[in-house]
Amino acid sequence: MIGVAVVGLGNALRPHARSLVDLADRVRVIWAAATSAARLKDVSDRYGFPTTTDVTRAITDPAVDAVLLLTPANAHLEIATAAFAAAKHVLCEKPLEVTLERGEQLIAAGRRADRRLAICLQMRFRPGSRRLYELLRNGDLGEVQAATMMAPWWRPQSYYDEPGRGVKARDGGGVLITQAIHALDLFRWLVGIERVDAAQVRTTAVHRMETEDYACALVRLGNGAPGNIIATTAAYPGSPEWIHIIGSKGTARIEGGSLRVATIDGREEVLADNSGSGGGANVMAFSHDAHRAVLSDFLDAIEHQRDPAIPGEEALATQRIIDAILTKGE
Prior knowledge:
Blueprint: E1 2-7, H1 13-22, E2 27-33, H2 37-47, E3 51-52, H3 55-60, E4 66-69, H4 76-85, E5 89-93, H5 100-113, E6 117-120, H6 127-138, E7 144-152, H7 157-161, H8 168-171, H9 175-178, H10 181-191, E8 193-202, E9 214-221, E10 226-232, E11 242-247, E12 250-255, E13 258-263, E14 268-271, H11 289-304, H12 312-328
């Protein structure tokens, strides 16, 4: 039984809390920590987790083996470093941190402490994603010729009116690092991204916000083939993200988790997924199944003393692509 402290009880909590409840035979919540009394009461009433406003107490409790870090990105480095110093493992919500430099420091702290660091980029754990990865690695689609990723999401202005939302100092950026990072990480995992050739980055007239709500880029995939990336939170009412891959032997499209494959020799494969993505105004309109898979892998990594499926270095590699798109789009 692995003891955990959950630090940060905002929007990100729900799928993690449900996952913790589902995996109660493997993991026990020792503390749920936050500064908001209202959130602490809600968590206690809803999930029955013990609560505290003392984050240090939660992290250093000897009964705690790992910390689930669900705070805004700009607090990740400080809290994760304290957790590693207390010999705790860390499962961190995306993004890793607000800058690449702070992300590198966070990873280094975990490596020095010989503790596990996992990042919650759960789209890789969807069944359709894993099946497509397998098909690509087995050569069933042949050589990738081109690929496109699009995240046509929506957020109302009220979303960005909340303090800190879309602010670089707290979140690290806008649509790329806060919303589209999931689809972009999946895209990079599937087909690789060698470099960013060109980009456009804008804040549309739809939103009043500090950072970008629209970005597009031309990229070179891992094998040198052309790729396209488009991401926005200005596409009302919001649609599922999708990735389309053209191979020399066929094509594959994954949309909101559902996979459709067609090969030139006449074979077809369909894997339906209705778990949702939270691409509209209801940001939590998705199943927690993939989050549960992330948590399960994290627990396995602790028990078997191995790296999790998505360690800090993998998350940072995706963040480097985001940084490159923002730089090219200036």
